[in-house]
């Protein structure tokens, strides 16, 4: 009886919390190929991102809300193995990118969003990727990474990124919808353009894209028309990306002294398959990521796979 009462109270508290309005959010995102394989440690091998989001107080009759975000991020890249020291065996360069960013996500009342982001950082040894990878390897008991002395050289990272999303269709039961997703990156680290679709299948009725954890639009306050709702869904996100420039592969045009550089394959197919759900003041997610080869003559030439774990905590 006590167990049933405790279980009942837990679900009631979960329901009540889901009805609250939370205007701030801390987010932790971790990318790693270990999340899909215990023996792969290559290419885009690790990403760590910490961010803080909050609602803007500015008003606009076309906007439902505006979400501001500060972020610190780190991305790490290695050849087919992190212990390859001979540069003739580097099928892609060692590279690291450390940055801070500020973004504004404009959430329109007509189920569209437009996000702009400015990144400032550094690519090269000053990103401390060598030190971070050896720290991670020590935790898991892996061999010490070697070959980082041949990584992409130091250069300033400046990037301007945008995202545009628009609902395309949904069913009457509101447990399935498809959104058109687009992004563009222009700068000294990445320049590329992508477009695709984001399909959601809900275990519960889906929230609109302007109030969902799927698009980072779930923050609300007394001025918004929405409140936090329970969400739980699977999603599929295929996109095509056309890349013009990637400093982690080609080296930065601001510093042409990198010892190992590779040719860029322009057209890339990306696929994300994942699960996202809410629990009290938390949001959780796991994503399986796949992309086709980004450069030629890779040892593993059947594309790259990695996982993403997301944990968000909401506050008033």
Question: Which helices and strands occur, and which strands form pairs?
Answer:
Blueprint (H helix, E strand, L loop, with lengths): L1 H17 L5 E9 L10 E13 L7 E16 L16 E14 L3 E12 L5 H12 L14 E16 L5 E12 L2 E13 L29 E15 H4 L16 E13 L2 E10 L12 E12 L1
Antiparallel strand pairs: 1-2, 1-12, 2-3, 3-4, 4-5, 5-6, 6-7, 7-8, 8-9, 9-10, 10-11, 11-12
Quick gist of this model?
This protein has 316 residues and is mainly β.
Features:
3 helices; Lipocalin; twelve-stranded antiparallel barrel; 316 residues
What does this 3D model show about the protein?
This protein is mainly beta and 316 residues long. It is built from three helices and twelve strands. A twelve-stranded antiparallel beta barrel has the order 1-2-3-4-5-6-7-8-9-10-11-12. The longest helix has 17 residues. The protein is globular. The two termini are 34 Å apart. The N terminus is likely disordered.
The 3D shape can be described as globular
Task: Tell me the series of helices and strands, N- to C-terminal.
Answer: HEEEEEHEEEEHEEE
Global mean pLDDT: 92
Structural class: mainly beta
Proportion of β residues?
over 45%
Query: What strand line-up does the widest sheet have?
Result: 1-2-3-4-5-6-7-8-9-10-11-12
Return the CATH architecture.
Answer: Beta Barrel
């Amino acid at each position: 009886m006590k167990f049933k009462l405790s279980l009942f109270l837990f679900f009631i508290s979960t329901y009540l919390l889901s009805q609250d309005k939370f205007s701030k959010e801390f987010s932790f995102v971790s990318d790693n190929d270990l999340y899909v394989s215990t023996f792969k440690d290559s290419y885009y091998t690790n990403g760590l991102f910490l961010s803080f989001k909050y609602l803007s107080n500015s008003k606009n009759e076309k906007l439902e809300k505006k979400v501001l975000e500060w972020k610190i991020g780190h991305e790490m890249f290695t050849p087919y193995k992190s212990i390859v020291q001979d540069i003739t065996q580097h099928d892609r360069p060692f590279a690291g990118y450390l940055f801070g960013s500020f973004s504004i996500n404009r959430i329109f009342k007509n189920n569209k969003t437009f996000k702009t982001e400015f990144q400032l950082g550094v690519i090269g040894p000053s990103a401390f990727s060598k030190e971070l990878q050896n720290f991670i390897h020590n935790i898991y008991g892996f061999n010490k990474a070697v070959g980082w002395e041949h990584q992409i050289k130091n250069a300033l990272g400046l990037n301007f990124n945008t995202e545009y999303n628009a609902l395309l269709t949904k069913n009457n039961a509101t447990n399935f919808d498809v959104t058109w997703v687009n992004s563009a990156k222009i700068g000294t680290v990445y320049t590329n353009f992508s477009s695709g679709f984001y399909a959601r299948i809900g275990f519960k009725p889906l929230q609109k894209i302007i109030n969902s954890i799927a698009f980072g639009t779930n923050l609300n306050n007394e001025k918004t028309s929405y409140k936090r709702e329970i969400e739980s869904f699977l999603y599929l996100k295929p996109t095509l990306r056309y890349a013009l420039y990637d400093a982690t592969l080609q080296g930065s045009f601001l510093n042409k002294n990198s010892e190992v550089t590779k040719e860029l394959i322009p057209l890339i197919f990306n696929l994300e398959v994942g699960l996202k759900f809410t629990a009290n003041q938390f949001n959780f997610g796991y994503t399986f990521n796949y992309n086709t080869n980004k450069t030629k003559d890779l040892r593993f030439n059947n594309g790259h796979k990695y996982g993403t774990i997301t944990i968000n905590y909401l506050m008033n």
